[in-house]
Structures are given as C-alpha cells and as structure tokens.
User: What shape does this take?
Amino acid sequence: MAVILETKRLGKQYRMGEVTIDALREVDLGVQAGEFVAIMGPSGSGKSTLLHLLGGLDQPDSGEVWLDGRHLAALSDDDLARVRRRQIGFVFQFYNLLPTHSVAENVALPLLIDEQPVEAHRARIEDLLAQVDLTDRANHRPGQLSGGQQQRVAIARALVTQPAVVLADEPTGNLDSAAGDAILGLLRRTCDEQGQTLVVVTHDAHAASYADRVIYLKDGRIVHELGPDENGGKRSTQTIRAVLTELEA
Ligand SMILES: Nc1ncnc2c1ncn2[C@@H]1O[C@H](COP(=O)(O)OP(=O)(O)OP(=O)(O)O)[C@@H](O)[C@H]1O
Ligand SMILES: [Mg+2]
Assistant: This one.
C-alpha cells in the first residue's frame, strides 16, 4: 500500500501575546491509502490542529505535509484549493452547514463548488442521505434539525465527491450509540469498498475501535500508537481506552 498522507516533523505554535503554545511538535505520521486512522488524546493535545494542517486549512510553522505526492506548502493557492476540493472531504467539529439551503443542497455543495453537474450525482446524494438516515429530511433546513442530524448532513457532504481522503473531527460526538455505529459503519465501508482513506479525531474509544490504527497525541506529540494486534485484528474498545486513561492520568 502506498502512503497517501504524510507529515514530516510537523510543528505548529500559537502565539498569544507573551505566551507561545506548542500545539504540535515534530509530528511524523504516515497514512496508507485505504487506511482508517483514529487520532485520540486529551483535550488541547493538538488533534484538531493536526487535522487542519493535514487538510491544508492552516499552515505549519515547521515541517511538512504531503498529500498524494504533493508538498502542500509548495502549492499555489489555486492548486491547494483544487486539492482540497477534489481530494479531501472535511467533517468539522462545528458542522458549517449553510442555514439558507436545504439538507440535500448542503450535501450537494462540494459538487457545486467543484462545478460538477449536481443532476448527474442525484442518485449518489439520495443514497448518502439514506445511509445517514435523513431521506425524510432532504428538504428541511439545517436549523430545523437536531444537532445529531446536522452532524449526519456534514458527513454525507464530506463523502459526496468520493474524495481520496476524509478528515473528520469528532464525527460521532453528537450521536447516540445506534446513530454513531451507523455512521462509523458507513465510514468503515467507504474504506473497505472504495479504498477511501480516513483520519478521524475522536474522544470515544468505541469509535476508535473501528480504525485500523490509533494514534495518541499528548501536548502536541505522538506519544503512543496502537496498530492491529498480533493476529492482524482490530483493537478492542477496552484496550484503546486503557491507553487513553493512562495518558490522561
Ligand atoms: N487559534 C488558536 N489560537 C491560540 N491557541 C490555539 C488556537 N487553536 C488551538 N490553540 C491551542 O492549541 C492547543 C491544541 O488545540 P487543539 O484545538 O488542536 O486541541 P484538541 O486536541 O483538538 O482539543 P479538543 O479535544 O478539546 O478539541 C490548545 O492548547 C489550544 O488552546
Ligand atoms: Mg479539537
């Protein structure tokens, strides 16, 4: 398998007056095409910062991000915008839905931005709405939905262009366990069936148990990593949680 996403000694600092926060320090991470990676760690450990840098939404202070053979910092603004549009799907912690547009229009938005004909993708939009269990909400506005329903719209939107890489920040944070499992199952299938690459930030060890690999951040550094067990199987929720508990202690 080829590495599709790679960071090299990635660093990010936030300066607030006299104080400098090292949000990320020398992060070396390689993600294989088709891999599902979960990022865990205590609040403030740098998870969202890392996700933003991976998607080219923010620039590092040191080190590099490579996506599909391209060094993001070396791209022109236009090329970076094109890479983001074509190759990356984002699910943000706050869903960034357009309040004046319907659910179906919000899901179709990445296609519109990429100037693709929405009509040609109608069946895909309907299929995604069904998979996130929102068929009967297609014509509602985001303000008429619950938080969990809005979150599911954001997930359908991230998948609509079938991007090579999906970056998701707490995609099941607002969902009960049944809805969360449905979403995690959907994400897992996009990896297994379409070879999509997933990087998912989560606090939830059960959500992380769907991943092929769990990366733990603390104080901006990768401090632990859990790959498959000796038989190549997935790690249990308990095993994943035990490492997190140790880090938070
Ligand atoms: N725009 C910003 N300006 C200043 N400091 C920031 C900014 N964004 C993040 N930070 C700081 O950088 C560190 C990492 O933040 P980040 O949002 O990446 O954490 P996180 O692991 O996603 O936390 P959470 O689990 O609470 O979402 C924190 O100490 C945070 O306060
Ligand atoms: Mg965060």
